[in-house]
Amino acid sequence: FCDTKQAIYGQLIQCQTGHAFTGKYYSSFVPTKSISCPCGKHIQMQEHILMLCPVYEPNHDLLCSASEDLVISDILGTAKGIEALAKFLKETDAFKKLRSSNPHRSNLPPSSAPE
Question: Distances in Å between the alpha carbon of 44 and those of 11, 63, 65, 98?
Answer without folding.
Answer: 16, 18, 24, 14
